[in-house]
# Entry
Amino acid sequence: MRVVYSPSHLLHDPVFEVSGGRRIPAYEVTGRGESIRRALEADGGFAFVDPTGHGEDPITAVHDPGLLRYLAGAWSEWRQRGTGAEVIMPDTVLHPALREGMGPAPEPGSPCGRIGYWCYDTATPIVPGTYRAARDAVDVALTTAELVLGGETAAYGLCRPPGHHAARAMFGGYCYFNNAAIAAEWLVRRTGQRVGILDVDYHHGNGSQQIFWKRQDVPYASIHADPNRTYPYYAGHADEAGAGAGAGATFNQPLAAGTTDEDYLAAVDRAIDWLAARSDDLLVVSLGIDTYGQDPIGDFALTTPVYHEVGRRVAASGRRLVILQEGGYFVPALGENVRQWLRGIEGRPLDLGPRSWDGPTGG
Ligand SMILES: [Zn+2]
# Structure
């Protein structure tokens, strides 16, 4: 299988985030991308490909041009304030109730106002290399899509930063541009097909859902932790099914804490069946591995072998697959779990190494 990878993800290297009122080490770190790269290189069965530039048009086909403009200039604008702050992070966020009944707010001129206008959390810091890395992650996704249109049955894009929390006019959740949504939209425009998105990240992909909420041609199926207890809290409930022309084209399966391999596979089967009835032969997969039992953010109980089986079942759907990396924060096993997933896609056997991270103590 071809793997699209760019070392420029290393430019996005935030050291902290703010979670639950505490400054904590960032979870979305460069080591994630390198864990995956190393595991796939060591496997020997994957061929690495550089991304090619696709410009801004595929991004603004999905995102507000103002969001692209903001992210492109955010760091230099922030540096000019001269405060010495090491990251850009909001302390004020545009809550919808602030202007309830009053129409939309204009974009503020001040850097502190602007970050809260475009960003919704304190988990998604901007550092000097963020924009370059985020732009290249989009090109990784589009190059992966291009490989599949060019005849590959499946290709994998090692996108970092991830994307599925970024909405049309908002970023957050470690995500700046929605790589999967941009790839899906690009494929729709290229082929005229209905392109499904299968989102198996531990978190609901609120951004992908929002972008295609009123669309029938990009059906969105997500399997995730119940937002009643977990980020992103405000989207991903079972009764959210799309609206207008997109009524019925969103399928959410919120799952309980402690979800097992068996429960998870049943949800995967339901999602595959649902997508089979609503999409043509292309599928974008938002591949998150924060469903893993050892993940520091998640609370599912999945083990390494299940990733191989999920891959096998997704491949058995018969779709051509654009597989894009989203989350996954237990870095020691991240690459290995992605490797098993992709081996499952290819019909290669499960290949558990000498060291398994599964079990109550992990590694
Ligand atoms: Zn996630």
Remarks:
- Residues 2-52+136-346 form a domain with the Arginase; Chain A fold (CATH 3.40.800.20).
